[in-house]
């Protein structure tokens, strides 16, 4: 049997819509305040896609930037995975739309649904395809236009979300670097806590489903909150253990950006100092599958990730799902 290859991230990219929506803007149409949103979530503003922009548009731009960063051409890509809960449409997949937009003519393409954990699920799939030698260069994209499924009459949810896309190129790298381990998990019994009820085969679109606002995100915020910090700690610890490391080995943590209080609580549990944690929730809110992908690209481009650093990516989300990846960083291909 062939030895497994080492997979790693050789390039990253991201794309955020230009339009900034501040907390103050919500004050004009729902009963909320800038002070409440900041103090309860850490969010100050978020990006919102124009009406003619869909998830594949943000994805394609992020992908082009990641390819440029990796020094690859679109034809070099064998597989595109788009993790999203806001595909352009039910089918074709957003990944197929991206394949066409960027001219990745040699790539297979599929979407992956794991809500906010989607990028970690995508990385895990890509790592295993590369490790097995099945594919050489894989684009993993986490992308969302959550503004299209947020209920702007529900103050409990609409203030939380933003739009954006992040991409990473996963390829074979030298044995000393790359993705050391990943961990993904799910607890489907918590599916009701976070969902978009209608538009699928359970509740097809109808006049009633529209009237009852079932095409928007529904969330039991406090139950998700209680699950979140514990899940991030558990996922990170499991991934670290799988590669023989522990919490004290982490040089940099890139967590899902859902609520600053959830991040703070996970950081305390993992006993990491705050200056080793990447935070951009203040600027973008929760971008679901895009959050970790965009944060990784920003941290890399700002030079915060040093060669030989142990980087931990960690997320939780609807499903319920959780995931983590441990990466020994090297600026290959950048
Ligand atoms: N402005 C003003 N008041 C508000 C707002 C708002 N935007 N939103 C809620 N409130 C009110 C509530 O109505 C409630 O009022 P009441 O006591 O009169 O009923 C009060 O604030 C307190 O509500 P809590 O739910 O206790 O507020 P909490 O401090 O827990 O914050 C929040 C709510 C921000 C939603 C938090 O629970 C949270 O972050 N949960 C996790 C969300 C999450 O991570 N989702 C994950 C992923 S999304 C995805 O996968 C697509």
Write the layout of secondary structure elements.
Elements lengths: L6 E9 L4 E3 H4 L7 H8 L3 E3 L7 H16 L8 E5 L10 H9 L5 E5 L5 H14 L5 E9 L17 E10 L5 E9 L7 E2 L11 H5 L6 E2 L1 H22 L9 E4 L4 H11 L10 H4 L5 H12 L8 E8 L3 E8 L6
Parallel strand pairs: 4-5, 4-6, 11-12
Antiparallel strand pairs: 1-7, 2-3, 6-7, 8-13, 9-10, 12-13
Helix pairs in contact: 3-4, 7-8
The protein binds acetyl coenzyme *A.
The site of acetyl coenzyme *A (ACO) has 24 residues, from helix 2 and helix 7.
Characterize this entry briefly:
This protein folds into 2 domains: 7-178, Peroxisomal Thiolase, Chain A, domain 1 (3-Layer(aba) Sandwich); 179-328, Peroxisomal Thiolase, Chain A, domain 1. Helix content is 31%, strand content 23%.
